[in-house]
Design brief:
Elements (H helix, E strand, L loop, with lengths): L11 E4 L9 H5 L5 E5 L1 H6 L8 H6 L4 E3 L12 H16 L7 H15 L17 E4 L12 H8 L5 E6 L2 E5 L2 E2 L4 H16 L13
Parallel strand pairs: 1-2, 2-3
Antiparallel strand pairs: 4-5, 5-6, 6-7
């Protein structure tokens, strides 16, 4: 249907792609636009979906696969670092192959593949001249990351989002030594607390989406 309606000739980001089957791959491989897929494995596990994003087949077809978290209702942590580790583990299980998706491949999906998926592959996703200075500094001194015998494996399977100490986006430091420099977290939490009753209200009689979790 996406092909018949011409959407595959546009810049298209397919959410999840858990319904992609083998006969879809030739269509996705020869699209006229920038077609990519975003995978959010935590939600698939939470809701016991029988399928997941066919990352291996999509890579073979040349379709970028970026990492995502989906919404808070299906991913309580909204932790993209966790999505990197889960993508690697789920893909190993689905494919029945411990050599796939390797730690370096998982990092590739978290960086370059994710950048390409949203059309920013020529600006972010790698540290190179002319690219935006987007980077994180990760503290690997904790006991849970020792010993660091394989840096990629440590980053994907041992480190956590909480190990990120400093974040730089386009050369601007947004967090330094775990201190957010551009957001007032207590004020945001207070605002959320004030808004929460309206967000969760059911007395209005209108239908709201429910997730049986």
């Amino acid at each position: 249907m996406l092909d018949r309606t011409g959407l595959l000739d546009t810049d298209l980001l397919i959410a999840h792609g858990t319904g992609i089957v083998e006969r879809d791959l030739p269509l996705l491989a020869r699209t006229g636009g920038r077609t990519a897929v975003a995978t959010a494995p935590r939600g698939y596990l939470k809701f016991a979906w029988p399928t997941t994003t066919p990352v291996r087949a999509l890579r073979a077809a040349g379709v970028p696969v970026g990492l995502a978290t989906d919404g808070a209702a299906s991913n309580n942590s909204l932790d993209v670092w966790e999505a990197m580790a889960l993508t690697s583990l789920v893909q190993k299980s689905v494919e029945g192959d411990p050599r796939w998706l390797t730690s370096r491949q998982a990092l590739h999906h978290a960086t370059l593949q994710s950048a390409r998926a949203v059309g920013l592959g020529d600006r972010v996703g790698s540290l190179a001249p002319g690219r935006r200075a987007d980077l994180v500094l990760v503290d690997l001194t904790g006991p849970h990351t020792q010993p660091v015998h394989d840096l990629a494996a440590t980053l994907v399977h041992s480190a956590r989002a909480a190990d990120v100490r400093t974040t730089v986006v386009d050369g601007r430091v947004l967090m330094r030594d775990r201190e957010l420099l551009t957001l007032d977290v207590p004020a945001i939490v207070r605002e959320l607390t004030d808004r929460l009753p309206a967000l969760t209200a059911r007395h209005h009689g209108r239908r709201i989406q429910e997730y049986d979790t």
